[in-house]
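INFO  loader      accepted 1 record
INFO  loader      residues=164
INFO  predictor   begin
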Amino acid sequence: MSFRLFGLEWNSRWKTLSIYEKFEQMIVSILTWIIAVIVAVATWQLILHTVAMIRNHPLDPGDAQAFQSLFGMILTLLIALEFKHSLMVVLHDRRNVVQTRAVILIALLAIVRRFIVLDLYQTAPSTVAALAGAALALGIVFWLVRSQEYPDVMGEGQKTNLPS
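INFO  predictor   done
INFO  writer      dumping tokens
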């Protein structure tokens, strides 16, 4: 679809929105632009950090701290991009709310990022257990939400050879 056709479609869709829906769309647009700026700045910082890390000392596979910091920055970018994507879905698909699955996925990514940057020697075991419990709970909720949206994932709709 060309940019002009998209603009015409957007304009015709805008006219059908209520005042509150227009307000929501404007807020989502503003948030999307803010997150885009944050992603651009974070990407630039990641590039600078990676170049400085390579220039100052070659990548040593034994240097866990350097890899934790690098992968933490990458996961931060992925979280921001996923958040931006969920807002874009609201903006362009005219959905009223952010999808529950997307929020759970973002939370899971944040916990995974926390695990990656976590220093196990400095962290209390109760904190690690709490993070693990949260990850497990979010994984179960994600699976349950997904199984509600896609019943075939649970095996429903498939014929079985079990006697009735």
